[in-house]
Specification:
The protein has one helix spanning 2-24, and strands at 27-28, 37-41, 66-67, 75-80, 83-88, 94-98, 105-117, 127-135, 148-155, 162-165, 168-173, 191-194, 203-204, 218-225, 228-233, 236-248, 251-254, 259-264, 267-278. It is mainly beta and 293 residues long. It has one domain: Jelly Rolls (Sandwich), CATH 2.60.120. Strands 1, 4, 5, 7, 11, 12, 14, 15, 16, 17 and 19 form an 11-stranded antiparallel beta sheet that branches. Strands 3-2-6-18-8-9-10-13 form an 8-stranded antiparallel beta sheet, with no helix packed on it. It is globular. The N and C termini lie far apart (42 Å).
Length: 293
């Protein structure tokens, strides 16, 4: 009987250890050939761009560069300290996007800025982003460069902001005094909708600035589970969101899985240590941000 009990205990420990290791396993998404990604390039946008398809001197619509045509080497893999690093030049608006869709996951990466900037952002803050729950075709947004998605903004001084891409929508845990968007990452604030027609259109600022100094790597994490997501910068939660969805003909549809895009948006940026792991539940330390779930 003693041996049986010990055998049962050993089996339970083995199962729990196996389950833990499975939960904690990370998958690296970067290699020297970008084998887990595809790409899309739109246009070289001019400062007077108005969201319409560009036309030539005869008024004929200009086609975007399109899928998997790496014009001007916008996306390239380099090596830094013997580690693979993705360089995004930013010269042409577009993205690399995962071949695979993801749902219920923890994404983690490091990002830093390069020196170059391109039109139409030569006089603006450096900008890129992580677009998640990406579905459909590229080029349906204002800049005609990306898929319908939610955005974890990566911009100088604004890493962790939220933007909606195309007709996506979401609710942000935020306090908004006199119309100034100022989200607070705690359980005492209401969730407010961000979407066209709600009175809070397009974007919401992160609660605090936790990004690294210029020239240094910033660690960015994205946790998605069900309709909920969190934006985390250098270990600090800066954005709490739920009820991820998109609006079509006035009707809301759930948006809780999809591909991941990394943007090319007028500024040189570098990405490394891009990795992802599956989640079986929302991690315990983050449940407090959503109240009772």
């Amino acid at each position: 009987m003693y041996r049986i009990k010990n055998l049962q205990t050993a089996l339970l420990l083995a199962v729990s250890t196996f389950s833990f290791s499975q939960e904690a396993k990370w998958t690296n998404l970067l290699d020297k050939n970008l084998s887990q990604w595809e790409m899309y390039l739109s246009y070289r946008h001019k400062p007077d761009y108005k969201g319409e398809i560009p036309v030539d001197e005869k008024g004929k619509k200009i086609e975007p560069i399109g899928y998997n045509k790496n014009e001007a080497n916008v996306f390239s893999m380099i090596e830094e300290n013997k580690e693979p690093v993705l360089r995004v030049s930013g010269e042409i608006y577009g993205c690399v996007f995962t071949k695979q869709e993801y749902e219920n996951y923890h994404l983690k990466l490091q990002v830093k800025w390069g020196e170059k900037k391109w039109m139409p952002r030569t006089d603006k803050l450096r900008d890129t982003g992580i677009l998640y729950h990406s579905v459909g075709e590229c080029g349906i947004d204002y800049w005609r460069a990306w898929m319908l998605s939610q955005e974890l903004q990566i911009m100088e001084g604004h890493i962790g902001d939220y933007w909606n891409i195309a007709n996506s929508a979401i609710d942000v845990r935020a306090f908004i005094p006199e119309g100034i968007m100022n989200p607070v990452a705690n359980e005492n604030q209401p969730f407010l909708p961000i979407a066209a027609g709600t009175g809070i259109d397009g974007f919401c600022l992160r609660s605090e600035n936790h990004e690294s100094k210029a020239g240094e790597w910033t660690t960015v994490e994205l946790i998605c589970f069900g309709d909920k997501s969190l934006h985390i910068v250098n270990g600090k939660v800066v954005m709490v969101l739920q009820n991820s969805r998109y609006i079509e003909n006035g009707t809301s549809h759930p948006l809780s899985k999809g591909k991941i895009q990394l943007q090319s948006e007028g500024a040189e940026a570098f990405f490394k240590h891009v990795k992802i792991r599956k989640l079986s539940e929302l991690p315990q330390e983050y449940k407090k941000y959503f109240g009772k779930i």
